[in-house]
Amino acid sequence: MSDKKYYDLTFSQKVMYYTLRYSPKKNLMNICTSLWFKEDIDIDLLKKALLISLNRIDALNIHLTEINKNIKQYLSDEKYRDIEVLDYSDKSIEEIKQEFNKRACVEMKWKDCNLIDVVIAKVPENRVALCVVVNHVIADAWGLTVFMKDALEVYLSLREGKDLPEKPASFLKVIEEEL
């Protein structure tokens, strides 16, 4: 074993994990949301902001693994390096929503890998949308809200040349306290 610190799953994570592990439809554990921008967005800057936010929110860097037939979680030291940009500028809003729904239905791997998928989409009228799919074992709707809010605050800070906002509270502290 490496020098990583491994944690048991919290009670609620165990419920989510067992659903993930034993349900025939693994995508049942995916939570998906999208954010559609009405103002002009610098995609490169948005990408940078998303990567900063992904890398500084510990809950989004939790990986699951199996040790001696027990499921454990750990904070991955791998950094997110890129965000896919999809060109849906020739699709209708309804077609784009269907594409996002397809992403939400993809079965995520769970062992020793990222449990979140973030894409930027170019949409009609030179606008931009985000699609975020996260495994419920590491985040809930509130966690997604925290991520989106942080990413937008980071984006605005970068665009305006200001210091980055304070990063969100550590999820590992919550895990340690709950366990």
Structure explained in plain terms:
This protein is an alpha+beta fold and 179 residues long. It has a single domain, classed as 2-Layer Sandwich (Chloramphenicol Acetyltransferase), CATH 3.30.559. It contains 5 helices and 7 strands; from the N terminus they run βαβαβββαββαα. It has a 4-stranded mixed beta sheet, with helices on both faces. A 3-stranded antiparallel beta sheet has the order 1-4-3, covered by helices on one side. The protein is globular, with a radius of gyration of 17 Å. The mean pLDDT is 93.
Tell me the major beta sheet: 4 strands, mixed
The oligomeric state is: single chain
Strand content: 15-25%
N to C succession of SSEs = EHEHEEEHEEHH
Observed structural traits:
3-stranded antiparallel β-sheet, single chain, 7 strands
Briefly summarize what is shown:
The protein has helices at residues 11-22, 43-56, 93-104, 141-160, 171-178, and strands spanning 6-8, 30-36, 62-67, 70-75, 84-87, 116-123, 127-135. The chain is an alpha+beta fold and 179 residues long.
